[in-house]
Each structure stands twice: as structure tokens, then as C-alpha cells.
Predict the 3D structure of the following.
Amino acid sequence: MRMSARQNVPAVGVGLLGLGVVGSAVAKAVLSQDESKQREIPLALVCAVVRDLHKKRSIDLDQSILSDDPQAVIGNTSVGIVVELMGGEYPAFDYIASSLEAGKHVVTANKEVMCKRGDELLRIAVDNNVELQYEASVGGGIPIIGPLTNDLAANRIQSIRAIINGTTNFMLTKMAHEAADFDAVLAEAQSLGYAEADPTADVDGFDPMYKLSVLTRLAYHTEMPIDGIHREGIRDIHVKDFRYASELGYTIKLLAAAQTHGESGLLARVHPALIPLEVPMAAVNGVLNAVEVEGDLVGSLWFQGPGAGAEPTASAVVGDILKITESSGNNSYRSAAFASFKISSMDDHVCQYYMRLTASDQPGVLANVARVLGDAGISISAVLQKDTDIEKTQADLVIMTHPAREANMQTAVSLIRKLETVIRMDNLIRVENYTGRLQKRTLL
Ligand code: NAP
Ligand code: HSE
């Protein structure tokens, strides 16, 4: 172990697995922590493992620190804390497990591995008497893993409702406020370092699904496998949906939610949702994330902050590193195995729906759609109709329903698609239920 020149206190060696967007910011922060000389236990950046040794990097590190061999970190006796910032399940799982088994503490920002293999890794950490910290894996710079693990442990959590993907929130905000083009705004999110290596993980809702699974394990002490989470991304959202939603008093967000359901059910879902303009979630814009937690003792809590980006994520990663150097070996593992919840089906979810379809602009169209909805026991709360071509042969028909069961709505949608006067069913978006909110004016 290297010694600190300033106090003769041995420095804790940090080894990075990954030196990309987050890894580079963490390397800078570790070096500046060392320079600031404010800590009793200094940190030393020992090694950074990358895939491509010749890549140009945003940080100027001594070449001798770089390696393309993971053993340069995992098998290095000068490394006390391994920081995994590569992403993905493999080989991250193997590298984290080997590091823990080698007696090293691990910090990771990897939600995918913590979702799919988190319980296993946390047990390996306990068995080897080392720590595995993962604050940066959900919500970027927002402290949410720590509060759910420790500070809120006395609560029965009733619901979690969150915006936990910075990339899509950035994209949706630009689409709402600037009518931005989907592909252009995705490229911008990538250039800002928000998006995953494969941005479909963001756009198709995988990233927030992994994060929701991690939060659910902590909040409900139960495993929430990804096939138990209903998942939809934002590909079908069009700029015109924001216009129509706004006329009805809403905006659109990619929401991740988990809530107790009936006696012992737990319903977890990730999908775009209409959010009433007057609730705080509607004003969470750009790369900001927000997590709303409802506990039986504490009531409603609200966490908000930058959910992606190099520095905010480095804040959480380096915070975890310092937590390890300053703790006396406390392990924050909580077993996920003691609560028994039944995973509820999305079919049983009840909410209002926004439906946009392209219809022939002729008499009887609305009556046909209304009849199908009525037959499924679904009543309409509002209707907007806008001509979409100069000849007035087609129209956008936007229908807002009263609360309906998902299974009934899906049956009705499959029948509406078959109506001769319906050219296309463009979008079906759920309306998030905020109790106590004023009922919207019925326009029909
Ligand atoms: P990134 O920019 O793509 O960086 C990944 C790094 O890992 C690169 O340095 C890459 O090497 C290295 N790497 C990948 N596979 C490797 C392998 N098999 N062996 C050795 N090195 C390998 O990713 P990032 O945005 O920094 O994200 C890193 C992690 O943080 C991910 O789990 C991500 O989900 C999470 N996270 C990211 C953000 C964010 O805003 N970006 C926020 C919160 C959490 P090369 O440089 O040589 O290619
Ligand atoms: N791609 C992720 C996001 C990074 O956009 O939220 C933070 O986990």
C-alpha cells in the first residue's frame, strides 16, 4: 500500500475498471481528493483498465496507469477498492465477483448487473467481509440507494414513482418544449454522455427497468425479476402527442413505478405516462431525475437531482469510495429474500388512457370507436379531433377515457384497430393517477 506523504497515513489504492464518461470523471475526482488533502485517509489512483489502450481520452493520465488486463486491478495488491464503470452484465459480473473474492471492496454504477445479479454479488461481499456499494446505479447523483437501505428501513413502502432515465427525460423535454426531432435529440443526449453505450437501453426502457428492479429489491425486500416488470419505451411518442396532452392539461414522461397491489401483490411498470401539469413530476425536466417514495411512517418523500452525466455520477461513486474508507466495516447488505409478494399482472392496472389514432374524416368514426369502448365498459372523458391533411380526408382523433382496467383497454384497442374507418392506432398512453386532483373538464 502506498503511503501518504502528508501524514504518513497509508493511502487507499483505487483501481478503475473502465475509463469512459464516468470513469474519467471519477479518476479526476479521486486525484483531486488526494490533492485537496482534506481527508484523513488519502486515495491513490493505482490503475485504470480499458478496452482500447490507444483511444483518445478526456483525461491525461500517465500511460503506466492504463492497462487492458483486468488482473492489473483485480489481482493488484495495491488496490483496496475496485470501481467498476464498464457497464453491462458480462464481464462486469465476473470482475466484481473476483474482486470481492480477492478481499477488495467494490463500488459500481452498473444498474444492469445490480438488477440481474445484485443479490448474488451482495452475498459474495458479505461472505468475504468486504463492501459492495452502488449508489450511482440509480438516479445518477441523487442519493437514493442509501436512504432506502438505511434511513427508511423502519417504513413499509407503499409506492415508488420515478423518472429514472436522464437520456429519455432530456429527449422528452426537448420534444415538449422545442418540438425537437427524436433522432437529433438522442444524438445530443449521447454527445453529452447521458446515454448508455447502446442507447436502445434508454429509449426502449431497459435502463429504467433495471433501476426500478434495484429500487424494488431495497424498498420491498423482495426480488423483482425483469420479466415481472411491464416495460415500454418512448419510440411511439410524437411531438404532436405533447401538443394534444398539453391541451388536455398534461405533459408526457417516461415513468417507472412500483406499488403494492391488493393483499400481497406488487405491480412494477415502466412506460410513458401523461402527468398532470400541476404536479411536481411534470416539472422534472432535462437530465433531472426524481424519485417519489411513499412510506407508512414518513409519508411522501421527494428526491430530485441530475440523473446522468459524468460529474453528478462521479459524485455518487466517489461518495461510495469515501464511505468505504471511513466506515468501520459495516456492510449495507439487506436480504431481499424475506418478504413474499406476488407479482401483479399489468392486466389488473387501472388508470385513464390517452389514445391517438388516425381516422378517415367522415361521419360515424367517433361513434364506432365510442361503441367499441362502451362495449368494453370504458367511458370517454374527452375528445379532440384535428384534420391532418388539406383535403380533410384524415384526422387525428385523440380520446381520453375514464379509468379502465388494462385488460379491457387492450381488448378494445385490438377491436378499434380493425375498424374500417380507423387508418392507424398511433399511440396509447396511460394517464398517471394522482389522487385528490381536480377532475378534468369533460369535453365530449
Ligand atoms: P462508457 O463511456 O461507455 O465507458 C465504458 C468504459 O469501460 C470505457 O472506458 C471502456 O473502455 C471500458 N470497457 C468496456 N468494456 C470493457 C471490457 N470488457 N474490458 C475493459 N474495459 C472495458 O460508459 P459510461 O457512460 O462511463 O458508463 C459506465 C457505467 O456507469 C455503466 O454501468 C453506466 O450504466 C453507468 N452510469 C452511467 C452514467 C452516465 O451518465 N453516463 C450515469 C450513471 C451510471 P474503452 O474506453 O477503451 O472503450
Ligand atoms: N443512461 C442512463 C440515463 C445513465 O440516461 O439515465 C444514468 O444511469
Q: What stands out?
A: Residues 18-23, 49-52, 55, 85-87, 91, 109-111, 136, 140, 193-194, 196-197, 308-309, 313 surround NAP (ligand 1) (CB under 6 Å).
